[in-house]
Predict the 3D structure of the following.
Amino acid sequence: MTITYQAAPNGPAGFQPITSAAPVVDAVLAGSFGLQAGSVSLRDVNAPGVLVTLGNEVANTTYTVHGISATQNATADGILTSAALDLAEKSLVYFAEKDPQNQLIAYGCGFLVKDSNTAVSAAHNFEDPQNPGHSLVKQKAVVEAYFGRPFDGETIQLELKSIDFRLDLAVFSIQGRSAGAPTAFLPLARAPRLGTHCVLVAFQLGIRAEIVDLDPDYGVGVMAGNVVRVHPRHISYSCPSFSGDSGGAVVLGDGGIFAIHLFTANQWRERQNTTAVSDDAHMEDMAESVDSLIRGGGSVSIGLKLMGNI
């Protein structure tokens, strides 16, 4: 029983297929096929329209390997335009604490959106684990966030304007930037229709331990998928995600932002079962919809639509 990985038909030529008895980790696939670590996605050669989540490969199947070229600031299979990826790198930030050795330990993502004075993240990134539904960051408090590659070392100071654990949204205003920090932001886009191609852009913090040797700096990664359901306030999509992606941007191919990434469907449902913040009819309807997605199987994530709520 084997799993075979081969280069995408329109990807870089000259890479030898990998045959393995078990799923191969992201870092190995990225290095073997000349891709940026953390950007890898798979498609079954017999069902090329279906994105396969890493770790969910099926034995005796061949997959094509897609992602961002390690040498070019563009995607091997058209996931994002080069301009959109450049904009994402200038707009995404991550939040981190410092350990006793003064090293950054990142725990969540955020991004600048709508204008150069507004940033958002997922509220649960700042939630008190001992007191669910309450924030460790007080309103009007200022927190520091960090840009990734190629703006390593650049920071931005964010003042918490509002935090809503029911919708899972934290909104910040910009209070200051380091000298070399970018001033870009992601433009808002209307929520797309069912089946629309979309991309989750985040720092993929949950796999840092696996890729740190190949990618020692924090760089944004992209995971492609499609919109699978449009809810009144939320949106569901098939982009694979990792722990630490919360607060990432769900965008169209041109970089227009329509949702903030919250959880996988299973994580979102578990949160509703264990916290006291889902107390209205809209959330009950949403929970029923998510339950049906979970029963259907596959990789599904949940995001919050961004329009009038910021």
